[in-house]
Write the structure tokens for this entry.
Amino acid sequence: MESDKFNGRLWAGRALVTLALVAVLVALWPNATSLYDLTGEEELRGQVAGIVHWLNTAVRPQPKLDTAAVAGSPHAFPTVSAFGVNTFLQQEAEEVKREESLDMVRDAGLRFIRQEFTWEDIEIHGKGDFVDRRNDPAGVDAWLKYDHIVELAEARDLQIIARLSNPPAWSRVAGDDAGEKAPPDDFNDFGDFAAAVAERYRGRIRYYQVWNEPNGNEEWGLQNVNPEAFTELLCVAYERIKAADPEAVVLAGALTPTVANDGGHMNDLIFLERMYAAGAGACFYLMSAHGY
């Protein structure tokens, strides 16, 4: 009899836990009508991994986004529209089209542009060489089009988030064989470039993003991603940017959202956790992430 009572209580407890878990899932479940909608994965294995990732994200403590939490910050951010747009104006050869593009940005009510300041397009042929001889043997100043972009943004009261990335082939012994976006062999070369940009645009550009998607999509080259190595590069760039412009605000490179952990990709939450463990918290002021 006692055994039957015990088993009854055991099953009741299990049922209660099961109902509680179901209730949590129902409460947290997003607006998705299928496992594909929820995870973006077509295969069952990927869907199961996606559900685990989603559930872990759903129940973990969320970041505090209240602006009052940073009221005592040494950086006073302007009260303007928080929305911006990615621009790749360095790829546009016609100046009038750059102007028209930024006119549309301004007229849309946007106040930020994230614009690439492409290392391989500025310090092209070698260390300290800022002359572009790719199309003209006599060479032209590689800074000129970037100066023009900054001038256009200023005239339209647009804030620039300067994305610093894409090393030139000369910065790696393996050249582009290591991947066109692979990091340089010597992180100080990147630090020198970051300092050169910050010195040139001191007082004109306030925000600098160091790298892009270092946790995947071959943005760390044709090799395994490495949060510890990226943290080292981030810290070098942070120190050099802040030395050149103490008022600069440094963003850590935007992470790509992924549940993959296959060497060439690393889950963004794991990557970020390892960045913090490696000391990244002292080397940026804002974190950036891609939300697609």
